[in-house]
Write a structure and sequence with these properties.
Layout lengths: L12 E2 L24 E5 L5 E3 L1 H4 L5 E8 L4 E12 H9 L7 E6 L4 E5 L9 E6 L2 E2 L9 E3 L12 E7 L33 H9 L4 H4 L2
Parallel strand pairs: 1-5, 2-11
Antiparallel strand pairs: 2-3, 4-5, 5-8, 6-7, 6-11, 8-9, 8-10
The structure holds ligand MTE and molybdenum atom (MO).
The site of molybdenum atom has 6 residues, from loops.
Length: about 220
């Protein structure tokens, strides 16, 4: 008899497919994702600069199996990611200054999202370049994406092009035209921090309208 999978976090259902997903205007945006990696380190870091894949090559490679939870209520279990730990990347490469507390991840498609630096120090937070044994392609965030399984999908920025360290969220804006209330500062899945100011009983059914049929299984 096979063991039952662990229950999903509150308000989530098991999606029938793992497809390219994104916020409105970013969902279908074509991006040049398969060129060599160029990642700009910006803001409160010891040496702001642009790095490439060879700079990451010296870090330990991690293989991780984790579930993925989109704020619109679908989840995917058992994604197999490979990449480097964000904490190791900070210590060896980014070297944020002591006053850095917020990190803004920027994607090639113009999407961006901020996280709290302390949340990014968790062991399961990766900069990933491989999913289920294959290099990340257009669907899942090539050439490099953030994987932070304890936080909703919208914090897991794809197609990374810059990582910016800031003292706080002051001066940061979730990409227009989307309202800041959609971007909870921490967005922890276990605590159902989906959005700011809006109760989950209201936001769950609204977000469910945006789940594609292929994920619903219809
Ligand atoms: N660059 C970028 N990253 C992004 C998004 C996006 O639109 N652009 N969408 C976010 C959302 S809402 C989710 S649920 C996941 C979807 O990841 P997937 O495309 O691998 O399914 O990516 C997140 N990261
Ligand atoms: Mo999402």
């Amino acid at each position: 008899m096979s063991a039952e999978p662990a229950p999903l976090p509150p308000g989530q259902f098991a999606g029938k497919a793992f497809v390219r997903f994104g916020l409105g205007r970013f969902r279908t945006k074509p991006v040049a994702h398969d060129g060599p990696l160029r990642l700009d380190l910006q803001g409160l870091v010891a040496h702001p600069r642009s790095i490439g894949a060879s700079d990451l090559a010296g870090l330990d490679r991690i293989e991780q199996r984790s579930d993925f939870h989109c704020v619109t209520t679908w989840s995917v279990r058992g994604c197999e990611w490979q990449g480097v730990r964000f904490a190791a990347f900070c210590a060896a490469i980014a070297q944020p200054l002591p006053e850095a507390a917020t990190v803004v991840f920027h994607g090639l498609d113009g999407y961006r999202c901020a996280m709290q630096l302390s949340d990014l120090m968790a062991d399961d937070v990766l900069l990933a370049d491989t999913l289920d044994g294959a290099p990340l392609g257009l669907a899942h965030g090539g050439p490099l994406r953030l994987v932070a399984p304890a936080h909703y999908g919208y914090k897991n920025v794809k197609h990374l092009t810059a990582i910016e360290f800031r003292a706080s969220r002051k001066g940061y804006r979730f990409p227009p035209p989307y309202p800041a209330l959609m971007d909870h500062p921490r967005a922890r899945v276990a605590l159902e921090e989906r959005a700011q100011f809006v109760p989950n009983w209201l936001i769950r059914p609204i977000y469910r309208l945006f789940v594609p049929g292929v994920i619903r299984g219809r």
